[in-house]
From TrEMBL, chains A, B, C, D:
<comment type="similarity">
    <text>In the C-terminal section; belongs to the purine/pyrimidine phosphoribosyltransferase family.</text>
</comment>
<feature type="binding site">
    <location>
        <position position="265"/>
    </location>
    <ligand>
        <name>[4Fe-4S] cluster</name>
    </ligand>
</feature>
<keyword id="KW-0315">Glutamine amidotransferase</keyword>
<dbReference type="GO" id="GO:0006189">
    <property type="term" value="P:'de novo' IMP biosynthetic process"/>
</dbReference>
<comment type="pathway">
    <text>Purine metabolism; IMP biosynthesis via de novo pathway; N(1)-(5-phospho-D-ribosyl)glycinamide from 5-phospho-alpha-D-ribose 1-diphosphate: step 1/2.</text>
</comment>
<keyword id="KW-0808">Transferase</keyword>
<dbReference type="GO" id="GO:0004044">
    <property type="term" value="F:amidophosphoribosyltransferase activity"/>
</dbReference>
<dbReference type="Pfam" id="PF13537">
    <property type="entry name" value="GATase_7"/>
</dbReference>
<dbReference type="InterPro" id="IPR029057">
    <property type="entry name" value="PRTase-like"/>
</dbReference>
<dbReference type="GO" id="GO:0051539">
    <property type="term" value="F:4 iron, 4 sulfur cluster binding"/>
</dbReference>
<dbReference type="InterPro" id="IPR029055">
    <property type="entry name" value="Ntn_hydrolases_N"/>
</dbReference>
<keyword id="KW-0004">4Fe-4S</keyword>
<dbReference type="InterPro" id="IPR000836">
    <property type="entry name" value="PRTase_dom"/>
</dbReference>
<dbReference type="InterPro" id="IPR017932">
    <property type="entry name" value="GATase_2_dom"/>
</dbReference>
<dbReference type="GO" id="GO:0009113">
    <property type="term" value="P:purine nucleobase biosynthetic process"/>
</dbReference>
<feature type="binding site">
    <location>
        <position position="471"/>
    </location>
    <ligand>
        <name>[4Fe-4S] cluster</name>
    </ligand>
</feature>
<feature type="active site" description="Nucleophile">
    <location>
        <position position="25"/>
    </location>
</feature>
Length: 495, 495, 495, 495
């Protein structure tokens, strides 16, 4: 049932909304601090890049119970109002920012916004998750047959209903029961009246870290959200680990799943995570700079300037410049006040959508051979427009260098990707893409080069890869059950 | 869990919000018309007096399925927008206006606003109800124990969960199953993808009528909502009856409950229903005028003017004037643009709250003996202020005549009443009330007089009363189970 | 220059917006009280019937100077917010509610909303006026030629510019200078940093009264706004009088204009003023009831019921019933939650616009001969629809009795009237109107009868009429200069 | 008079609002294109960095006349609505973005938002200006004495009133008359019903450029706004030049002022203009990079990393790195979703304001000697906080290099600067500032170095400086008349 216009939705200020893979969620939780909601709001603000569509916070307060607020739009536009924040008392809280979940076909509604809440006979629990449940549709059908009433179109709601039906009497145990029925990628942050809980799926596809603030504890998708509140980074939650945290007993670690080789999402290094976060003990910025170094080694070219496609191509461009000795320059300037809904004047403006966000530094580019470094090519539509703007400004040559391998397969683990047939690399070879973009050269980093840049000196071990790289390789570490039912074809031996 | 500020709430323009009993809901449904939502919006507008806090509409459209919109505020402020109404396509729809349900202790949230919706394995159903389920809390505990997740604080949601767990495969049969577990007063309007359903509880406490429009059918709390869309009044749904309506098979009647003597709410005649509605075959306006006639016969007094307390006292004042021969006059004028939130200036204004809504016609009242006719006395706070304003204007005498017996007991069947100890008549005799209000005389119509006015020539048959008059008599036709658990004391033999 | 969408405008809840003459403004001012703005807000709320489109308040505070707020919509929806009211400090303030001024052709903009403010070399002044300046366009052209920059489309702004150019050094003297150049009808409330000023035009067309509250003073369009703040009614400002009020010197009276016979607007008695106000020493309600008495004497008819067209026909209907002995009844019920923008369902509803606001009490009307008492007939469109609804409900006969003479001429003195050709009485005789409305009889009170009802026992003295009755007689006491320039034709000797 | 809360104001997303000099306005105009308003909206979006508080557009359309809309907030949030843009028809339009004008002491109101409009006897004109009129207060007093009524607190309104009183009959001639009375810095864009007009003050302090689009013409503060609509850059309007543009006659050039040595604002090169704009024939980005080069030459230091303070320090940091050979690195990451109003949690977070916008790349910075390149030091508050964050992250040394000389004097030519005593450099020597900031070294580029970077190979000619550098030198090319009257002290011979 679609609930009409319950809340107006904001436009998306993301620069090239339809031509990037996009992380779908960020999660954050804190226990043992005064006014937990204010910490959660700050944490979600720092994780805003993981989901711009909506955000939600749940807190628990002794005396008044659970409190919640869910809103479309940016954290800074909603969770900064004293009037709203006063309605979220308590020293324990969790929050969520989201782009859109696989479950809601098309439009999101406010009731699809996490955290979700369930009242059980032994008390309530709230839950927020980053990732995607690959058997959510099958679970949903089963639960409805048994008499569950779903309130949202979100895959995450299954977890709450599975918990409600568990025979266990304790909430953490019920959560274990529920998560054992769930397949896919998930980093969960949950809370009861007295405990903060964090879980990562057995493969550890999505990140989740533990931090310390005073006498309290923090869970967050990334370390940058620890920094904003001045929390200390303790460690990453391990793949397949559940932590249960209370102020009295501290952190207790559980292992509810069978042990497996972990497969962290390699695209978190390439694009999703913030450059000031730390993943696997390394600065994300430094990893990206190193990707640029590898890229320059693999695909050198003679040119006058190395220019990033702002902002995500910047660290790799710096690395490329440093490795190649070609000067780094800001050939493309981003408009800080992005917009995407201006009305096109009657006299048509070429590449108007891109011009709203980017402008070429004409006086700098004219007559030059330019290397453009971008993080990825998805549909290729934006790359084409940028190339045209660069040529209009009088560049002599345009060479694209891409900080990831060709993206040829969709992600089913919590990333918004176009259908396979819309991915440029799914239907074209590198040379066909170069022709399609009509540039002087186009080169992607190799999958081995990318593994080297993230610290696997020997490149990718194809027998036992250390990362989930399904979007490049087509090798899905968890079978995408619902999608196969809907007709998705896995890679064949021939491909 | 309270969901903070999800929607701003309007102020209530009802004149004396805290000093009136208040009907809590109105329901409306239509099937077999093009653009059902527009008819539902008009119907709810006509029923707005039954609930001003919020309204909701659900429709079903072949092809796109169920659609819904729920809003705080008046129907005219929400369901008049073309943008919103376009999101509610279909030829079948139901709607609800509400004041507040017993379940939500205190604040209402948008998710408490009906109609409620449930997806079952054989398809979805939406349901709206007027009344109150007296065993809702007990049912809720039972359902949560079995694994149901509640999304609202409303008593009505129990019905959906009971339906989800019914072993029947057909929605009307599941609804029968569910309603047989429910106690209290309820007039239900529900819909599946193809059928409109109406039910009244076995006592028929709350009204529900059937209408015909073209080839379609209408269900409504009152006939005034048939008039606004030009529908023809067919008949009342009978106490204990369920009607299932489809365009093909028309209206089929079911009797899911054991037969009992009906007990329609007598206060619908006194105050809740609109004067242009027809109840039990009689104009509500005419019944109220007749109450004024009975009142004049029972409690005559010599005076210069009969003035209604606007607007609800008007019909009885007309009857009182006609029976007594004392001229009818508008001694109190109501401000059409009511408000209740003005900031009180530093120099305090006496009775400021009342002055925002009423003003005394000073030039008319000065030096006169005035009879004021009001529909009821609840807390007595407003009556006191009106009396003061009348005296300030120079009236020589003030005589109150009340068009209902003393309200001494709370209602648990879908009416918002103060706690018993706040009811003036629960703690004072008639003479004590007169002294408390400091008026020259104060008289209530007798319970027998009221029964005569509604057409029971012989008065009330105390062995088998035809109406629910618990608010006057303390005799509750359905045991208020949840309230007794919370500590409410029934009338003792001594009282 | 039109300023696009500066503020959204509310819909008008007035029952029959296009078929009533409409007062265009109400003014209010207070001096010598703490928190003057709160008093002004209350006063404007009581005067809301004189203008529903927008309202404005200006205050002056020692230290922080002048403050102002202007808003579209009802007083109760804007000037009740603590946040807004805190921005209006001071013990001296004036306010204005408006419908629309003659000057703004079509759409009103926020800058057209009074009070207007001007900074002069000896300090600032704010001014609000009720009425219409009949030579505003000519004055405006003259002022622009001399270098004035107008900020609004309102006729009232001329007064400020005339004041700015006056050679006098004192603000009250400048105002006299300015008002002597102005023609038409105006009741002005103005303020300097230390004084409250009130003026009525030489004919005294529009009302203005003086009140006392504690040590302070009040000016208001009507006495009902004195009642709401508990102020005492002192006297009416006289035609051609200017009062200058300061807390120290009290009220000083000036006579800036040549003396003339006054011509108060007789329609204020019929419809514009609130029934609980006092005009010329008489209750407006009582005058209207007396109009009903005169109407019954002039045009008796045999019938079963006398029903008012709510709400403005009510007092005259009461008088008609009392004089004729035919019972008074509420045959038409008004919806308290008026709306006018519902979307018409595809199956067309007859008279849908009227049904949103009124419903016939069918069970009461069926088979009866009904006298409908209304205050006036303007275009006749609503009268027709009401008649149809009454006949649909089964009435046997319908007799219209109108509490004013035929409205055959537009008003140019601050009342919103249709163009002359749209006035039913401008093109039809009484019998033609009866046929047009298709009723059994239609009778208007005579002009003499109306004069008798307002206390002129001998009727209208056509040599020296005591009231402005131009809308009935076509005799304009001030020549409508701008309108004649635009082509309006005055009554000829032949008419 | 302050008009309370007429429009809600947005928060400012500018990173360090109180610690930057800030350009106050951008102007844009276009003639001879269909749907001029859409072009103006795009142009203002590109100029948003010159004023984020509010924006306004005026258009003229044959038939319907002038149209206008003024709004608080970003261009992208207001002038993207089809509903609004449809209210701005015509092929000629001008627009304005603003931060705040000198005139409005404190709060801006919607009526202070330009363009301003005046109706003269020969037709209307609208005007927008970038800069500041240094004798506005004196002019305002004179105009009020003569009978002008001001509608805003803005200095720009003087121009309209002077024009209204000019004895010339033609609008461009009236504008010349008016501008000859005005002192200060101004780049004006204006329009009549048929002409677009541009003017720069005799010193040419603020920029203004001319562009060509199809058969139409464009005026803009910067070339980046030509790029966004695909217009061709023609030339800069010259200091002291007025251009009058019509589609028929093209561009005609006038010289209404006496000729003087031009003094363009050198801070436009340092910070105000966008890096992709072209000023004086050079890329602004390239000039800033060259400032970094000069800075590295003047003040070398041994270190591990050169990090910009984002985003304005970036080009100079690149230049510094290239000249010094020290690697460039993103040591500080800016949050793309800036906010400034989060509620501080009870456990105080150090430097919370800065953390909302910036985060240190801890893993990169730890143990390093870091050079931070920033564009300027105003109050020094932000520099201190950034230094603390860098040290918290474990940096070994912190060296500040500033891309402008010490800012010791306020600007009175259209830039928002703190009072002189709040400027760090007004009260401290370079070494005192270093101690105050507690950094290892702090060096500013010299004034001569800055002149060299902008292309004056020989440095600053102190007898005849080519730029306005009053903020550094205290030498004001136009006497700040109003400010001196208010007590501002010019530089003495001793200083």
């Amino acid at each position: 049932m679609s609930d009409a216009l319950e809340n107006a939705k904001p436009f998306h200020a993301h620069p090239f909304d339809d031509d990037k893979l996009r992380e779908e969620c960020g999660v954050f939780g804190v226990i043992g601090v005064t006014d937990a909601a204010n910490f959660v709001a700050l944490g979600l603000h720092a994780l805003q890049h993981r989901g711009q569509e909506a955000g939600g916070i749940v807190t628990h307060n002794h005396g008044t119970g659970f409190h919640s607020a869910r809103r479309f739009g940016y954290v800074r536009d909603n969770f900064t109002s004293a009037k709203l924040m006063e309605t979220l008392p308590g020293d324990l809280g969790i929050g969520h920012v989201r782009y859109s979940t696989a479950g809601s076909k098309g439009r999101t509604e406010i009731r699809d916004v996490q955290p979700f809440f369930g009242e059980f006979s032994m008390g309530g629990a709230a839950i927020a998750h980053n990732g995607n449940i690959t058997n959510a549709e099958a679970l949903r059908r089963e639960l409805i047959d048994r008499g569950s009433i779903f309130q949202s179109g979100s895959d995450s709601e299954c977890i709450i209903h599975l918990m409600a039906r568990s025979l266990q009497r304790d909430i953490p145990e019920r959560m274990k029961d529920a998560l054992r029925r769930v397949e896919g990628a998930f980093s969960v942050v949950a809370m009861t009246r007295t405990k903060l809980i964090g879980v990562r799926d057995p493969l550890g596809v999505r990140p989740l870290v533990l931090g310390r603030i005073g006498d309290g504890w923090v869970l967050s998708s990334e370390t940058c959200a620890l920094d904003i509140i001045g929390a200390e980074f303790v460690r990453e939650i391990e793949p397949g680990e559940m932590v249960v945290i209370s102020p009295e007993k501290g952190v207790t670690s559980h292992r509810p799943f069978e042990s497996r080789q972990s497969r962290f999402c390699i695209f978190e290094h390439v694009y999703f995570s913030r450059p000031d976060s730390i993943l696997g003990g390394r600065s994300v910025y430094e990893t990206r700079r190193q990707i640029g170094v590898e890229l320059a080694r693999e695909n050198p070219v003679d040119a006058d300037l190395v220019c990033p496609v702002p902002d995500s191509g910047t660290p790799a461009a710096i690395g490329f410049s440093q490795e190649s000795g070609i000067p780094y320059a800001m050939g493309i300037i981003r408009n800080q006040y992005m917009g995407r809904t201006f009305i096109e004047p009657s006299e048509q403006i070429r590449n108007m959508g891109v011009r709203l966000k980017l402008n070429v530094n004409r006086a700098l580019i004219a007559g030059k051979r330019v290397i453009l470094v971008d993080d990825s090519v998805v549909r290729g539509t934006t790359s084409r427009k940028i190339k045209e703007m660069i040529l209009d400004a009088g560049a002599k040559e345009v060479h694209f260098r891409i900080a990831s391998p060709p993206t040829a397969w969709p992600c089913f683990y919590g990333v918004d990707t176009p259908k396979r047939e819309k991915l440029l690399a799914a239907t074209m070879s590198e040379e066909e893409m170069r022709e399609h973009l009509a540039v002087d050269s186009l080169k992607f980093i190799s999958l081995d080069g990318l593994y080297r840049a993230v610290g696997q000196g020997e490149g990718r071990d194809s027998n036992c890869p250390k990362y989930c790289d399904a979007c490049f390789s087509g090798e899905y570490p968890v079978e995408p059950f619902d999608m196969i039912e809907r007709g998705f074809k896995l890679k064949t031996a021939a491909e």
